[in-house]
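To whoever is on call:

I kicked off a structure prediction for a single chain this morning and the downstream step that reads the tokens threw a length-mismatch warning. I double-checked the sequence; it's 109 residues and nothing unusual in it as far as I can see. Pasting both halves so you can look.
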Amino acid sequence: MQFADLSPAWQRLLRLFQTINFGRIEELEIRNGEPVFSPGPRVFRELKLDAADGPRPERRLDRFELRSQVDRFIEQIHRLSDGTVERIDVRHGLPFRMVIEAAPAEVDA
């Protein structure tokens, strides 16, 4: 899948990952399998003090192939459909780990 194939909401979220580069997003609302930015999520950037730090250079590109972890992240969000992603850890401008609340029955399965 290509970045250009994504909906505007998904493109906005991926651009946010690229801008953060290293950090986390908290309390991201999901409706109908799409990220929602109203209310806006909490965004935290990690700043390295021993090296140059900043957004990913890919954020200037309009067409690029999505990495496998982005595909898996989108798949998980579509499964969630409606809810809140409590935390998304971002590493190298990509979703690295996510935390969602699960019902006890889902944990036992």
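Update from on-call: the warning came from a stale cache, not from the record. Cleared it. Sanity check on the structure: DSSP finds three helices and five strands in the chain.
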